[in-house]
Amino acid sequence: MPPTIVKSATPVATQKIPSKFSIIAALNTVETVGEEKDAKTTAEELPNHHFTETDLQDEWKSFLQDIRNRDVVLYNAVNGFRFSKKDESTVLISYPSDSAKSEFEKIQGEFLNHFKRKVSNYQIKTEFKKDETLKQELVTKRNMFEKFAEINPLLRELDDLMKFDFS
Q1: What are the counts of helices (DSSP H) followed by strands (DSSP E) for the chain?
Q2: What is the pTM of this model?
Q3: CA atoms of 63 and 55, how far apart (whole Å)
Q4: pLDDT tens digit string along 5-51?
Q5: How far apart, in Å, are the Cα atoms of 64 and each of 8, 101, 114?
Q6: How far apart are CA 148 and CA 115, in angstroms?
């Protein structure tokens, strides 16, 4: 005699278990205006002490030393930056190129948070200015020869004759 199979009246897998996150509930939530107001008042209550140009330069130099020890490539990218105090709560950052600025953006938060805590001024804002004069040109032997050849054209004839290797 074959065994009898018991079947259920309703499917077992149709039970709906509510998830911990509901998209409909998230869409229907209303943000309160009071929370935004509290954030503004706490920003106004933060200390806003005076800092000097010397404080800014000293902290940047010490931060560069830390970066040099951690990541030499990043140090070389941001070493050419110049900081200056524009007014009481604004720091002007001069940078040589857009690629250097993108490297600085990786560490900008780390430096500014450290500096704000150090001088106890949480209202500091930054402004960026591109300054082409800050670019550091690598001087190779070939570049030096070209400069000297402009001054003395006989060097170029000597190079053609002797086939100098400047690599």
Answers
A1: 7, 3
A2: 0.57
A3: 12
A4: 887 777 666 666 666 777 777 777 766 555 555 555 566 777 888 89
A5: 73, 15, 13
A6: 45
Residues 50, 85: contact at Cβ < 8 Å? no
Q: From residue 68, how far is each of 41, 65, 87, 113 by CA, in Å?
A: 39, 5, 29, 19
Largest Cα–Cα separation, the chain:
114
Amino acid at 154: L
Report the alpha-carbon distance of residue 101 to residue 63 in Å, rounded: 16
Domain annotation for the chain: domains and CATH numbers: 53-133 (3.30.300), 137-167 (no CATH)
Supply 145's token pair. 């020869």
DSSP letter string over 17-53?
PPPSS-HHHHHH----HHHHHHHHHHHHHS-B----H
Neighbour count for residue 77 (Cβ, 10 Å) = 22
